[in-house]
Amino acid sequence: MTEVGVPELDGAPLFLLDALPETDEVLVDGAEGRHAVDVLRLAPGERVRVGDGRGAVAEGAVVAAGAEGLRVAVTARFEVPEPDPEFVLVQALPKGDHGPLAVDLATELGVDRIVPWTAARCVTRWRDDRVAKGVAKWRAAARAAAKQSRRPRVPEVAEPMTTREVCGVLADVDLAVVLHEQARRPLSGLQIPRTGTIAVIVGPEGGLTDGEVVAFRAAGAEAVRLGPEVLRTSTAGAATLAALSMRTRWA
Fold first, then answer.
1. Which among 79, 95, 126 is the end of a domain?
2. Are 198 and 86 in contact (CB under 8 A)?
3. Based on the domain organization, do 98 and 18 belong to the same domain?
4. What is the pTM of this model?
5. 6-10, 187-191, 214-218, 241-245: which range is least confident on average?
6. I need a labelling partner for 82 at 20 to 30 A (CA). Which of 2, 56, 154, 233 fits?
């Protein structure tokens, strides 16, 4: 029987498989299994959770740990619903490893969808031959961070979008905010919806152009600031998600 809801987090590690079989015993093999056996050194009797990254979770006890991986006897199943409100992060492409870092932090703090954005002042450019590699890195970072934070749902990482395409995304959200150090209105002064979709737009190291700000505001976004400090592009999204969670999911 599958229960609907969020199981209590009690320290049990979470492993993610591409598909979660409907069997009484689940094998965690491959890289996940090696990590469980060689790094975490899990032993028979220990409690774990296994999920598919899309909300289905099986809970159980380890019955065997060895070369083939981890065998788990399932004692309960859960279907974790999609979070509400949904958080969308539109993240301008940062340089170097700051992109996966931004994804990692945002995932730990509850983001549900991540849109890589090719802003005008991005130092990094994903050319045609680098798009697939860049997206794969971000998706791997989201999956790893979901396991670390024991999130049953791995955030979706979209294909890179232009400013025009991002404006199209904003048409379907309930609140959109674009972080801008010169904005007069603080995020704390906004009325935050408790349901629906909230989008956060974070610019690149070089900042937003006037044209981008105008385009996003025309699409319905509110220009806001977090505080007197100017955060790095890799941390600004996570800080905003934490502030939003305090007024919605964590309230």
1. 79
2. yes
3. no
4. 0.91
5. 6-10
6. 233
